[in-house]
Amino acid sequence: MGATILIADDEPNQLELLAYNLSLEGFAVHRASDGKEALEKIEDLSPDLVILDWMMPIYSGIDLCRKLRERSETRGLPVIMLSARGEESDRTLGLDTGADDYLTKPFSPKELVARVKALLRRCRPSIMAEIIEAGDITVYPSKMEVFCCNTRVDLGPKEYKLLSILIERPGQVFSRSQLLDLVWGHGVYVEERTVDVHLSRLRKALACVRPGRDMIRTVRGSGYALQCG
């Protein structure tokens, strides 16, 4: 499916169990054992969804969720909260803090996988889609394959990720800094010129199968957008 998930839990056995079951479903899974490590990995990896245990060292799941909702770049990041607290007031607190879903322990790994898929379908539908189409471009996320005018386009990992972001919202202009955060991860030092280099490669790859048509629009002083008309 291609989605990247971060699990933060200080119980090693549960962390391993959840990571194993999510990996079986094709997710790219990363682990953190406390709130500080989780925050650092969120900044580095820009995951598509995070799973937070309520009772973690340094930053609790509640504290970390608050921090994520205070930051513009992580405000919309899907969050599932795990907790042994089953009272309605605890669930309400977790959801009010900004969690999108709340799962009370004990729970089955299958239930968590189902919740993850449901949340991604709601918040990041393009990730869960079997096919994404915009104009002459077709993307198959589960296979990480791209076709233009019914011809396969071979892309490097960064070019594929850039296209995946642009095709999610055709016509929307993304700044270089936005693309850097979404592709390379927030907090990673990469020069903005790097975005231009990889977008140039993406342009050339698409132009090989559709000559004379530049499908990546440059908006001077603002950024880039996918134009499919």
Q: What number of domains? A: 2
Would you report the number of β strands? 11
**Taking Cα atoms only, what radius of gyration do you get, to the nearest Å?**
19 Å
- Kindly report the CATH topology of the largest domain: Rossmann fold
Q: At the first level of CATH, what is the class of the largest domain?
A: Alpha Beta
Percent helix range: 40-55%
Please describe what this structure looks like.
This protein is of the alpha/beta class and 229 residues long. The chain has helices spanning 12-24, 35-45, 61-70, 88-97, 109-123, 125-128, 157-168, 176-184, 193-209; strands spanning 4-8, 28-32, 49-53, 79-83, 101-104, 132-134, 137-140, 145-148, 151-153, 216-219, 223-226. The protein has two domains: 4-127, 3-Layer(aba) Sandwich (Rossmann fold), CATH 3.40.50; 129-226, Winged helix-like DNA-binding domain superfamily/Winged helix DNA-binding domain (Arc Repressor Mutant, subunit A, Orthogonal Bundle), CATH 1.10.10. A five-stranded parallel beta sheet has the order 2-1-3-4-5, sandwiched between helices. The protein has a four-stranded antiparallel beta sheet with strand order 6-7-8-9, with helices on one face. Strands 10-11 form a two-stranded antiparallel sheet. Helix 1 crosses helix 5 (109-123), helix 2 (35-45) packs parallel to helix 3 (61-70) and helix 7 packs across helix 9. It is elongated and about 60 Å long.
